[in-house]
Amino acid sequence: MKLKKVLALGLAGCMAASMLAGCGGSDSSGKDTKGEEEKEEVTLTVLAGQSTTDVGMEDMIDEVMAEKYPHITLEWECVDWGNDFQPKMQQYMQSGLPDIMIGKAQDVLTYGSQDLLAEIPSEYTGRVLDAAIENVSIDGKAYGLVFNALYQGVYYNRAMFEENGWSVPKTLDDLQKIIDDCNEKGITPFASHMVDTWSIGNVTMQFAMNDVFNKNPQWGDDFRAGKESYEKSQDMQAAYKNNEIIYKNTFPETFSLEQTDCDAKMVMGEAAMKVSGSWSIQNFLDIDENFDFGIFPFPNQNGDSKLIFEPNITVMTKADSDKQEAVNCFLDVLTGDKDLAVQIYDHTKTAPMLKDVSPTFINPSQSDIDKYASEGNIVDVTLGNNQLVWGGFQEENAKDIGAWLQGQQTFEDALKASDGRVNASSVSK
Questions:
Q1: Which residue range forms the structural domain that includes residue 128?
Q2: Coiled coil where (predicted)?
């Protein structure tokens, strides 16, 4: 956990306290255009559930907030989203929520359905792309603000594919031919770091999106209604078993290998592919800014897989806050300062969800993303994550998958365990 404070510096440019609709009033650079007046100092608490790419963005926000709204103090608590965000939220639900919570789009349904979140003013949601609104809305009202997005699939070493004459696989048979050729030539097919439960859970949902949810978008509801189960669903079992394809064709130390070291092996040519997401780009380019890589969706049983899109940094605010004006100032900075936005996008190596903002970093896989987008072959993983929640369900399933792969339990036991936690698979209402 990391706690940070920005010192209050004096004057600020927020609207008068009676106008709670928001701070607004910034020009394209984010500089406040309203008259200065002395403001009472306010402290906002921020719980930030971070992905590996996000660490450091709080410093960037601090700097702009201190300049533009110096009467506002931000007190940050930064935790790992995969392991710690949900437990922290459960604690704060008992003692009182932070003023601002930063998680993922799927968290909006979890907490918004319990009437814990405030509607995001349209002044700020109007600054993000329409595609970022649907999955953070409940009954037509947006309770989250999506700032950026990740893409997920199979990253591949473009030069290695060209040297070996491999084409991007569309079917599992196509993929197996590449795997076989890799093994014959002494190349590790997949880089992976299965020591991270979140990584197993993430790739399993990737598989499930294309083998399960693209066929039945209501699979999770059917699961809870007793119409589907892990023990009976051939599609879900296929999604689970894809983990075995990776495990049998990756580094022997995968259950002790950290992500950074894994990504380094990929960049250094020790593996041809990695099932991952945009969070790996940051490591790839830090290691070698000239590393050339592409991305394709992991093939499903039908050969019609889609590239996966995931809304990432998502801001939520506490319902019935007595600090709404200050909260709106935070939203104003995050959505209105384009220089800050570009700085964050370049740092995280992620896709923008703000309108008319383009990062400056070079993403070698962008041409592949554009291709799948133009063909309509991109699917939003929020569908699956809303159907089967992460905390208490997907993460627990991932632990069982890891135990199965290591021979600590049978495949059937892993399926039974998933069925046994059916009551934890959805948002409690």
A1: 42-149+310-367
A2: none
DSSP-assigned beta bridge partners for residue 141? 138
CB 131 within 8 A of CB 310: no
Does residue 333 or residue 31 have the better pLDDT? 333
pTM above 0.70, yes or no: yes
Of all helices (H) and strands (E), which one includes residue 316?
strand 314-317
On whether residue 336 sits in a domain, the answer given is: yes
Does residue 272 sit in the same domain as residue 400?
Answer: yes
- For residue 374, CA distances in Å to 245, 367, 370, 377 come to 30, 11, 6, 8
User: pLDDT per residue over 108-128, tens digit each?
Assistant: 999 999 999 999 999 999 999
- Using the 8-state DSSP alphabet, how is residue 318 labeled? B
Contact 401, 204 (CB under 8 A): yes
Token reading at 150: 């990740």
DSSP string for residues in 366-403: HHHHHHHHHTT-EEETHHHHHHS-IIIIIHHHHHHHHH
Report the domain count for the chain. Answer: 2
